[in-house]
Amino acid sequence: xxxxxxxxxxxxxxxxxxATPVPFMKPQLHxxxxxxxxxxxxxxxxxxxxxxAELEERFAALTDARHGLTCANGTTALQLAxxxxxxxxxxxxxxxxxxxATVSMVVAAGCVPVFVDCLEDTFQMDPADAARKVxxxxxxxxxxxxxxxxxxxxxxxxxxxxxxxxxxxxxxQSHLARFGGSGIGAYGDIVTYSFYATKxxxxxxxxxxxxxxxxxxRDLGLLRSHGETDKYLHERxxxxxxxxxxxxxxxxxxxxRLEAETKARQAAAARFDEIVGAIDGLTPxxxxxxxxxxxxxxxxxxxxxxxxxxxxEFCDAxxxxxxxxxxxxxxxxxxQPALSKWNRHNTPIAxxxxxxxxxxxxxxGLTEEHFRTIADALEKVAGAYRA
Length: 387
Ligand SMILES: Cc1ncc(COP(=O)(O)O)c(C=O)c1O
Prior knowledge:
By secondary structure, this protein is an alpha/beta fold. It folds into two domains: 31-253, Aspartate Aminotransferase, domain 2; 258-384, Aspartate Aminotransferase, domain 1 (Alpha-Beta Complex), CATH 3.90.1150. The protein contains eleven helices and 15 strands. The strands form four sheets. Strands 1-9-8-5-4-2-3 form a seven-stranded mixed sheet, sandwiched between helices. It is globular, with a radius of gyration of 22 Å.
């Protein structure tokens, strides 16, 4: 006979908090998105045309940027930005803690990434560490607005001004985030976005760059499409990093809902702050002062000294209770094998975070029942593993 009680972890044969797992993500396509794509398919105009132009204009306006250009994905958005601003051999300050593309595309541009540590409370790139790592060869800053939260834009803009650096903000995870009362498109030289399927605005694949300078906008446009200034006249070497109008139509249709969905994410984050904050040993993510986060991910810090288990054991137990989690990221960017050649910049916080964080389900479809399940599961698992 089983000796399991209500407080026995589901992992050890107890009853799970919820037999139906909380969805980690929410399918994002609505019927109107599908219809929007069908209209384009029926029109026969498959290449970048009116729908890409509409997405560019509307997205730029929503983020307080002057110009927007769609492109194939967030990686090509970074390639366009770096290609427009940097020369091979330039040293670029990059986050030690981000998704790899922010850094790997610096390498792909022939530049030298200089790793900057992140802050312990926000997980964002640390401007003070960036300032320490400026050398005579530094030409730029590539800062990620990670998990939906802006970096300390004031501090990076001041550093850039002092040393005449160009700034790219990778906002792949931060559609519609704000800083100091303005959209993040108002700051820096170029802001890049990804519309990968799971992003706050997902089109499958897709990307966008914004900027506020007419000449830069022209350069980005040339790089995006083989440097073509007239039919088959190529002014400079460029690429084909264009979006297509099917993707553009899905993007426009989803953009109609993005503000409402962002508000739902922000409300969910406020609930999680209470739930997570009530558990000794777990710390909610802090938001950069003056920043308004859009919560692509809600990433919690796990204090290994306060529990008898590892972070992975804790997450396995949560999963068994009906709460799936994920780790963003299981390895710091600075510690990726592909970047080992450039890993010589002392970034202890980033390197230790991979064993100390996990992300809770975060999307606009979380319900009261989901919040209750998550709260109960966290309390139960934390209680079972209390040190
Ligand atoms: C911070 C960051 N930068 C860049 C990218 C690359 O975007 P994409 O997958 O659209 O190429 C991602 C995608 O996950 C990302 O999270």
